[in-house]
Amino acid sequence: MALTKEDIINAVAEMSVMDVVELISAMEEKFGVSAAAAVAAGPAADAGAAAEEQTEFDVVLTAAGDKKVNAIKAVRAATGLGLKEAKAIVDGAPATVKEGVSKEDAAALKAALEEAGASVEVK
């Protein structure tokens, strides 16, 4: 029996963040692709939907700043990721820290990251 897209999406939705990170890494190795390109292309595709009132926001780390360690700590606190994954986000800036968060949560996350010395954009 072949899995449908919906079956796969439901299975991923039930995974922990760490399991999803491991799955993405395994898919990158298996297919020789990078998930970073897909993330960067995602917001551009949604430009038409942005004309309506926006209710979900993406928080993008644009630069780590002078205090890289503080930025990593802030990313870890906000996402629940491990040290290695948080460091990868900070080192890979610009990178999306969180997607689909409310305006209030995005503003709070932006403030926390900027307090840690990082440059942040909310899209």
TrEMBL record:
Pfam annotation, one family: Ribosomal_L12
Domain Large ribosomal subunit protein bL12 C-terminal: 57-123
Superkingdom of origin organism: Bacteria
Any single Gene Ontology cellular-component annotation: cytosolic large ribosomal subunit
Keywords annotated in UniProt: Ribonucleoprotein, Ribosomal protein
Chain ranges of the Large ribosomal subunit protein bL12 oligomerization domain: 4-50
GO BP term (any one): translation
Keyword hit for Cell division: no
Gene3D superfamilies assigned to the protein according to its UniProt record, in alphabetical order: 3.30.1390.10, Single helix bin
Task of the protein: Forms part of the ribosomal stalk which helps the ribosome interact with GTP-bound translation factors. Is thus essential for accurate translation.
NCBIfam families the UniProt entry points to: L12
Family: Belongs to the bacterial ribosomal protein bL12 family.
Protein name: Large ribosomal subunit protein bL12
UniProt organism field: Marinomonas algarum
UniProt lineage: Bacteria, Pseudomonadati, Pseudomonadota, Gammaproteobacteria, Oceanospirillales
